[in-house]
Amino acid sequence: MKPITFHIFVHDDVTLSDRVLGLQYFKKFTDEISAITGRSFEFNMLRNIPGVTNFKYASQNAQAVADRWMAVAADYRNTHNLGWTRTDRYILVTQGKINDQVLGAALPRQPALIASVSSYQVIAHEVGHSFTATHEDAEIGWNAWGLPCETYVYPEVSKGRANCYRYTPKNREHIVNYLKDAP
Ligand SMILES: [Zn+2]
Known about the structure:
- InterPro entries: MetalloPept_cat_dom_sf.
- The model has no long low-confidence stretch (mean pLDDT 97).
- Strand 1 (4-10), helix 1 and strand 2 (41-47) form a beta-alpha-beta unit.
- The protein is globular, with a radius of gyration of 15 Å.
- The chain has a domain at 4-118 and 170-180: Collagenase (Catalytic Domain), CATH 3.40.390.
- The chain contains four helices and eight strands.
- Helices cover 32% and strands 20% of the residues.
- The protein has a five-stranded mixed beta sheet, with helices on both faces. Strands 6-7-8 form a three-stranded mixed beta sheet, with no helix packed on it.
- The protein has 183 residues and is an alpha/beta fold.
- Zinc ion (ZN) is lined by residues 125, 129, 135, 155.
């Protein structure tokens, strides 16, 4: 079984180090995906790539931004002869949001996605979508402190709720099903 490869394009505006990004934004959810799929991860951290990590993502039209990022990522993939399969993801990590309402953008089964570090669960949320997890199958859960929390793919971020830092069983199933037939 092939590992899942994350090409992580850290936008020029991100002020966090690779170490902080890894520990606070990637570790938990990738450990979870590893545990449920049996696949390991390869992380390829990429910074300071003109034409890529200075991508203009702020827009009222999130769909147009997602389409543009898809084209930039596909171009990078072509020039570097990389994979574009179920186990490859091209993640643009941004400091800011696309707009007031939109923290990231991903489509089911599409390898390219955008996610902001403005909230801890956004990267896990968008990666979940790209692995076919849905808002409908996300839910409010309860954390170890007995407080209501949002699972990764829950659609509304509320400051009054904690993060669960996990996918729901149904969304785990979507992720497992999506990856199970990949090489
Ligand atoms: Zn969503």
